[in-house]
């Protein structure tokens, strides 16, 4: 058998030292991947919590709208919110609140179809779902099924920005 002896000053003195140096070289990558996995898990949990908060905010909005709870709606809607009603009118927060106060806009029911999708992007969220609305818009009673797109922004709490 032919053996190869490495000199003492060789770069790798033993196989054990060679393996240890390889491990140390790859250790930062392994730590990064491990931390990224934990971070992703925490992000998923936070995203899930945010989706639940958004869903609850929308439920509060719908309840307040049906009950014509103007005080609650003033808190739920952002000051610069835009509301597009079933008649296609684009209303500011003040205009929409005035229609609710006067009785020109009054909803009996809001029925959301299954499959609401909630997407959260840091401090904003978008929801989409088909919805059937029965009630009165601008003094005209009717029932309409339409897609509902809602954008919310999170300041200290979730606020409806565009409905």
Structure description:
With 163 residues, the protein is an alpha+beta fold. It has a single domain, classed as Nuclear Transport Factor 2, Chain: A (Roll), CATH 3.10.450. It has helices at 15-67, 70-76, 93-102; strands at 77-84, 90-92, 106-112, 117-121, 124-137, 140-154, 158-162. Helix 1 packs antiparallel against helix 2. The N and C termini lie far apart (82 Å). The model has no long low-confidence stretch (mean pLDDT 76).
- SSE string: HHEEHEEEEE
Count the E strands.
7
The CATH topology annotation reads as Nuclear Transport Factor 2, Chain: A
| Number of separate helices | 3
Provide the structure class: alpha+beta
Give the termini distance in whole angstroms.
Answer: 82 Å
Mean pLDDT: 76
**CA-based gyration radius:** 29 Å
- The CATH first-level class comes to Alpha Beta
Query: Strand percentage, roughly?
Result: 25-35%
Spans of at least 5 consecutive residues whose pLDDT stays below 50 are none
Task: Indicate the CATH architecture.
Answer: Roll
Q: Count structural domains.
A: 1
Q: What overall geometry do the principal axes of the alpha carbons give?
A: elongated
Largest sheet: 7 strands, mixed
Kindly state the percentage of residues in helix: 40-55%
In short:
The chain is α+β, with helices and mostly antiparallel strands and 163 residues long.
């Amino acid at each position: 058998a032919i053996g190869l002896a490495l000199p003492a000053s060789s770069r790798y003195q033993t196989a054990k030292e060679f393996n240890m140096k390889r491990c140390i070289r790859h250790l930062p990558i392994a730590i990064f991947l491990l931390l990224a996995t934990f971070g992703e898990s925490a992000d998923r949990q936070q995203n899930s919590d945010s989706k639940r908060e958004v869903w609850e905010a929308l439920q509060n909005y719908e309840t307040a709208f049906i009950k014509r709870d103007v005080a609650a709606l003033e808190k739920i809607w952002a000051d610069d919110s835009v509301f597009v009603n079933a008649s296609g009118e684009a209303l500011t927060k003040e205009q929409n609140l005035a229609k609710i106060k006067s009785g020109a806009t009054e909803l009996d029911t809001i029925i959301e179809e299954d499959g609401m999708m909630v997407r959260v992007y840091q401090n904003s969220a978008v929801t989409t779902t088909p919805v059937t609305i029965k009630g009165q818009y601008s003094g005209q009673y009717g029932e309409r099924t339409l897609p509902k797109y809602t954008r919310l922004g999170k300041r200290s709490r979730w606020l409806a920005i565009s409905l």
